[in-house]
Write a structure and sequence with these properties.
Radius of gyration: 23 Å
Strand content: under 5%
Oligomer: single chain
Shape: flat
Distance between the termini: 58 Å
Amino acid sequence: MYGNFSVQTMRIRSFLTALECPGKNRRSNLLTNIIMRNILLTTGTVLLGVLVGCSGTKGEAETYSPEEIAAASARANAYFDACFDAGVDRSPMTQTYLAIKTDYGKWDDLSPESEDRELAIAKKELQYALDSIQPEALDAQARISYKLFVEDRQHQIADDKWRDYTYPVNQMFGWHSQIPSFLINMHQVSDSSDAAAYISRLQGVEALMAQLIKNLKRSEDAGITPPKFVYPRVISDSRNILTGAPFTKGEASAIYADFKGKVEKLALSASTQKALL
């Protein structure tokens, strides 16, 4: 049963990975996990009944009392939640997706150093799970969580060798389009501090793109580049984003129109609104 569940899980993960922006920081796994938690909730509930039904057979699980199983499951779930929360704390963009405004004016770190840190954390978390959590002492639902947690970290570690084998900028999606899309669709402005965070993110785009360019050059040095037909399409899309005020003459660009519209809906004084715009 676990084997079949694992296959279905990996199929779902592959589908979600295909939807993500290639070349994103490995913290994008957090977003995949958020979606997967909802997708797998129903499947996990069904498996729970099957696993409980199978628990009547002789096996190691019978050596644990109900109280011990409940306590071990609570500890394991607390660990999984702590790892997830720590990952969210390291990802300003994931925080925004979850409507958390702790680092509302920041972007994720795309540097190789950040990737290295995430890899080290994944290895540490996996080792702890393997050494300190006994899956046979868990209840059925916690065992499913354990299996997913271990598989997620194992795949993250195994996939790291392909870190540079992506097209983070391409004709279908990429950072050049994700930045305005993220600001327009995800960065909500409910007060002046949110507006200031929007501006902070705009000011941080230069540094973010500098990291992206370094990553692209590293991939290029390794001979990893997209097909030639991709370039003019990406350039055209990028120019469209930078067309309109305040970049060029004419109507407001998509980003400025979004920011202006959000600020104008706030109950701000004329001087504060003018300062923001």
